[in-house]
Amino acid sequence: MTTANDNGLSVLDGGQLRLFRALDSVFQRFAEGWQAPEFRFPFLIRTQDLDRFDYFDNFPHLGLAATRLDPQRLGKLLTEAERPLDRVPPEIMEPTAFALPSAACYAIYVDLAGTTLPADGVMRTTVATCFRNEDHYSGLQRLLGFSMREIVFIGPEEGAKQHLLNAKDTALRLCAELGLDVQVEVATDPFFDKNSSKAKMQRLFPVKEEFVVDGLAIGSVNYHRNFFGERCSIQAGDDTAHTSCLAFGLERWVHTLTQRFGDTAAALSAVENLG
């Protein structure tokens, strides 16, 4: 059984972990069908790379940093503080150049920075532990650290839009096969300033749609236009690359399917018997 604390830390038991892995295998098969090779990226991301994406302007409430503790000041603190130590005060933390990413795809764009891709673009997939400084947490539905599988297209505009269509169709078909009552809800993308021309365009062509089951978003399709291509100087042939992605929150899928089928064993059986 999952154990959870108010601070967003949860534990997956053996049955849940088997369901987790079976779900990710399904998502990886989608990636293989689209010729999207799998990459594993560093767990941390440089703050300068996040700032390149205006991250701290657009997501100031989500940010989490990874910092070194000063050994001398820490030693002094430990001799004076009540134990166990439940807080690390900022005065013993060193300035940091690294952060904990809140999405898996950022590392893909950073990795491709300054490159020229084939004119028809490329695909990538990765899974990452992502972190978000939320205002509240709730079991597997909302975690401090969670697993995100993304399948990303980087290339020409039409290719990015086609990936959105393929991804949306694939996700909805999966939900139907598993008997999930899913709603598609349009969301806004904070990467686009609400007063910018790109923000106005997203009202004509939605850039983010979420797959929502019982009020919980378990995945999304996202179109970033040429935002990341511009910020990372990624070319697709002679043009700035556009990007789009399909994202799944793995723990949220474990929660949702367990609710749908009554227990993890029945949910696992349903996933393993997918066509």
From TrEMBL:
InterPro entries: aa-tRNA-synth_II/BPL/LPL. It comes from the Bacteria. This is Uncharacterized protein.
